[in-house]
Amino acid sequence: MSNDTDGSIQLEYEIDDRPPWPKSILLGLQHVAVMIVPATAVAYVVAGGVGLSAADTAYIVQMVLLFSGLATIVQAYTVGPVGARLPIVMGSSFTFVGAAISIGVDYGLAAVFGAILVTGFVVEGLIGWQFKRIKPFFPPLVTGLVVVIIGLYLVPVAMEYAAGGAEAEAAGQLGALQHIGLAALVLAIAVGLNMLTRGVTRLLSVLMSIVVGYVAAVVLTFTTGLEIVTFAAVGEAAWFAIPEPTRFGFEFEPIAIVTFAVLFLVSAMETVGDMSGVTAAEGRNPTNEEFRGGLFNDGLLSSISAVFGAFPITSFSQNVGIVNFTGVMSRHVVGIGGVFLAVLGLSPKVGAAVTTIPSAVFGGAVLLMAGMVAASGFRLVITHADLDRRNSVVVAVSLGLGLGIATTPEALAGLPDAAETFFGQPVIVTALSALLLNTFVPGEQSPLFDAVPDSSAPETGTEATVGPSDD
Q1: Beta-carbon neighbour count of residue 216 at 10 Å?
Q2: Which parts of the chain span the membrane according to its record (predicted)?
Q3: Domain residue extents for the chain
Q4: For position 422, what pLDDT does the model report?
């Protein structure tokens, strides 16, 4: 894919383009295929951490899929001021996993969902409402670094999937040849089809690689006797299930509310970074309306989903990678993906069938997507910020601290538990470091010193957030 001089990439389909229906359906399925395992993994991890029954776990998985789909549809098409009209797939974020488990164990899931209900729209809604005022504090240098650390932080997760995931680790098979082989097969096919072919095979390279990997996994299961693919959960799942409001109840614990308020602030920064990563494919930054609508969607749908027992719904970075990898930016494709997710959320049996795809197969695809997310973040930084001495120091400190925490979390063992939990999040550390350094160190990207926002400039997609001109 060739790069244009403004940092954009060559797009096969632009944001309002409508590919033919057969191609749109397959492209939408590709988005679903890449995000469904990590999105539902949040539900499995939290449910296991707090000791939920199999029935409650299956229900939470169902609600995560349903509200991921609804939020994706709203993001693509908008409902009033809610939604950005951008091709952003929504899903349950790992940002909230640690807090959900610790608060769920100490206070119960009712306190978790009560905190999400209160802080979701209050925090992200307030940020979205006032984003035009705080926008100068989030120039491409800051948001780009958030995108970079999200992508880099996903790499170890992808590698764990590629090695077989939690199931393989529990069975003592983590890194077994069959898992690494499947992940390598998926990665090789995705890269080969994208780089060496044209047309539909290039556009659907990720989906086709997952399909080939899944078929290979099924063949291995039946020819070697290894339990790589199991279908027991499909037979046990119901065909249709209706959401149950307040199934887990609500409690409003101050500690839980404060914790989730901070995490929603970080989630907002992730969403800002993901939105910037998507529009970077067009060589621009999101407009104020896009930022506001996207953040409204994050907060409102997260609060509504808590009523039905789903964890916070936010933008999914893996799918930002798909947009940049395939050059398909059509929001209508993503909207179709949202419909598929919502249908899966209403049919536990279909969802169970999809989750039979082995972790190793997804690992090969997610590894590629994580790298593409990081690459889109780097492109955002390089395109809109000169890497002079000042900005290079901001990049070095922010990424150094973030990756340091990600690779050596035990370095914070001496801190109080609350501080260790807070500063043990690589995204939080990178985001806060970039935000503070960029704000208080003089430079063109700083909102307090050399940068002078042009209040008379029209809100077009090519406006600079704050800082040097895009020209």
Answers
A1: 19
A2: 25-47, 59-79, 141-164, 176-196, 203-234, 333-354, 360-381
A3: 21-385
A4: 72
